[in-house]
Amino acid sequence: MPPLSVWQQVLVNKSNRPVLASDEHNVYIKDGIGLYQGRLKIKKYQNGRLYLTNRRIIWLDQNDQQRPIAVELSAIERIELVEGFLRSSPKIKAFLKQNEETSIKGEAMDVSGSTPKGSFDQLNVLDAALRLRSSTVTWVCVICLYNNLISTDCDLNAALPTCISCGIPPSRAQIERVLAEADELSRELTLNGPPPNLEACPKCTFVNHPSMRYCELCGTALRLVSSSLMKRLQSLDNPSSLSIISENPMGLILEDKEEYTNNIPYVKFSFRKGGELASYQHLLEEIQSIQWLALEAKGAINGEGTKIVELREPSPQKELVGGIRGLEKLDQLKRKQNEMVLSLSLDDFEQLMYKAQDILNLASTFKTVIKPQRHSFNIEGKTMPPLLFNKSSSLYHQELLRHVSEFLLNFELTSVTSMITLQDLFASYNRFLILSQGFGTELIPPQDLTKSLDLVDKLKMPIRLKTYLSGLVVVARRSHDLQSLHRVLLQYLIDEENSFTYEKYKSELLADNDGYMRDKYRVFNGLTVSQIADHYGWSPAVCAEELELCLEEQLLVVDEHISGTFYYANVFDPTILARLANEESQKKDAQNDVLAQQKLISDKLKTTYDADQNLIRVSDYSFGLSTSVPSLSPPLSGSLPDSLNQLNGLRFT
Amino acid sequence: MFAFPKIHSFPPFYTQQQNSTVRENQLNEWGQLILAYCQHHRILTILPSGTAMATQEEAEIPPLFENKLIERSAAPEFRRSILNHLIHKLDRAQYVDPKQQDAGILIFWRTADEWARMLYEQIEKTGQTNSVLTVYELTQLDELAAGAEFRNMDYNMLARIVEVLVRQGKAQVLRSDDGLGRIEGVKML
């Protein structure tokens, strides 16, 4: 059989897409495809779309000037990927089945019987189909008069078929009669040759036009159409032209005479715009599945057989070629591998996008389980209705601002000193939206946020924006005053320093073996930006700006050292110096506290010791009190060592 | 041993403060510290780096511009501005030679007028007026003509003091004729 006949006609719908059979579906579509028969281009079939379905490869002309053509996948033996080189585009080579083609043809010859030499393939196929059709006969339901179909070889001993329309089974006699009629009719046809009136409908005897396939009146298939049509065609054309048509049903014109390497017929699809790899894989899958089905149909596979998928990496054949060609080859190899990786990864991505909705649903089911991390927006405690507002509305920004403001007052600006930078606000507000409304929430873009925050003064919101010299913008409560904020800051530093001195003197009185305490409490080391920021829950940038302002206001002084920048209360200012607690009084306080503590410990030790040894109860005698109480009175420096010495008896150091 | 005031172990003390008012206060504090320090160690001249150049005592002197304990020291720039403050604002110090600042800075922990009055009273008390006294006799001799306060006094400092007396018309000086014009002898009137 001439390989060109592998190309078949394709029906196209109005929007220029191929009409698919009922169980056919599209697998892959690619444009910029040229067709080759063997080694040669098929003329005018060089720029088109390729539709890969699960049964055919369909080619459609890009400009719809050529008739679309198709190759059945079942006619393809195997495929091969041909890499592009320089100006030659990558191609897929599809080798055609030779033996089966001829066997099919032989069958067709047998069936049609009367068809002359140079058989008309298409009509043969049609004929076979008609024969297949005729193997079913109709029986009319006696109840509803519906025309039911039944195949001629149906087993009458088994249960009789029921009417599709009303469900009533026919009588056995009726079916037998119908089958006998059909049998007779077919025997008549095969034995006696065509009846005299070829155009007459076998059922209603209406004489149809020879080109009709179905009876115009009753719709019955006209069985002899093919042969009659063939006769007419025979009379019209001479045999030579017929043979050309059969060899080349679509009238394809090659550049030259047909030629194949190794004499194995094949067609090629040239991918002018790439995409050959994906096509190749899809095609391979489809062909394999068709072959698998064929095997199954032959009964070559038992029920539990599975297909062994051969994982074939398309390449690393180490071929050491020197020179430029070798380099080019290496480069090509690398590019192919890259393309492979990319296309595979993108496949996965498409999968992910495909599953996106499912994943979102899944994620929201976990919402109750996930612990909110850093910012525990205590949503249970404070409820905030979500902002449901049309984005296109002119009031949108105002509403958004109100919502943000509510959010801030509830969660972020909880204390007077709270501040938050715009960036942090943006992040935490969106985080809040996700947390309170689930993952599908639409987030607020920064443009909208800034736009609505611009309205803060106009709407007299309880929050306000503050811009520092460096351009840093923060949001704070309106109530919080800059001056008082700095006073608070100063007071914090003073408190820190006071407590430090207190601890220092306290540590001096306590045991210190390794000198750690001495080193630690040598001198107050001030506070760094991060310490202050942590204390107030500010971001470091805000804190640095505030401290800068405090320096300007002469409330603080700075110590810039290689180990860092430390801030202190401005003791150069006598009024501030006065607010630092007096060292002497601090010292005294520390001593008193330490003494009281030690006495408590010693008392406890005494009572437990006495209780253990069954000695006289300490509380009966007030010696502990009478000796140590005076030591707490003013001349502390003298009495201190004494009171501590008393503890030596208890080996307390 | 000189007891440094508490501020000497206050870390921001060693950083030049940005705010001008605060800085003024800070520099004043530094000035007071330097005067007290120099008085305690009887230092009359220091180098711009803060090292004592001439002292009337031979003893170990702790460094002025640094505190090893808290690991802080004033930057050279800051030292310069402290000394400038002392010279120009507080008027308690002078360059030995303004054109040659590295030559040292005289620290007037006692003002030149006070020094001059002390010197004159001492000379008057010991009845040495109208007699010529050499610089050596005033500062180096075992039995000092001018009293213990002037022992080992730097020549530059003595020159300033004497100049004050000259301006007041209480003294006359004899200068060397080697072109430098150094003071050789002083006669109180």
Question: Would you give an account of this structure?
Answer:
- The complex is a heterodimer of chains A (653) and B (189).
- By secondary structure, chain A is of the alpha+beta class.
- Chain A has five domains: 3-101 and 255-298, Pleckstrin-homology domain (PH domain)/Phosphotyrosine-binding domain (PTB) (PH-domain like), CATH 2.30.29.30; 117-244, no CATH class; 321-368; 396-480, Arc Repressor Mutant, subunit A; 483-586, Arc Repressor Mutant, subunit A.
- Chain A is 43% helix and 13% strand.
- Chain A contains 19 helices and 16 strands.
- In chain A, strands 1, 2, 3, 4, 5, 6, 7, 8 and 11 form a nine-stranded antiparallel β-sheet that branches. A three-stranded antiparallel β-sheet of chain A has the order 12-14-13.
- In chain A, strand 5 (56-61) and strand 6 (69-72) form a beta hairpin.
- The model of chain A is unreliable at 100-123, 125-134, 238-244 and 624-641 (pLDDT under 50).
- Chain B folds into two domains: 6-107, "Winged helix" DNA-binding domain. Chain C. Domain 1 (Arc Repressor Mutant, subunit A), CATH 1.10.10; 112-188, Winged helix-like DNA-binding domain superfamily/Winged helix DNA-binding domain (Arc Repressor Mutant, subunit A), CATH 1.10.10.
- In chain B, 37% of the residues lie in helices and 17% in strands.
- Chain B has five helices and nine strands, in the order αββββαββαβααββ.
- In chain B, the strands form three sheets. Chain B has a four-stranded antiparallel β-sheet with strand order 2-1-6-5.
- In chain B, strand 8 and strand 9 (183-188) form a beta hairpin.
- In chain B, helix 1 (20-41) packs across helix 2 and helix 3 (112-125) crosses helix 5.
- Chain B starts with 19 loop residues before the first helix and ends with a strand.
- The model of chain B has no long low-confidence stretch (mean pLDDT 84).
- The A-B interface holds A 522-523, 525-526, 551-552, 554, 557-561, 563, 566, 568, 570-573 and B 7, 9-12, 14-15, 17-19, 21-22, 25-26, 29, 69-72.
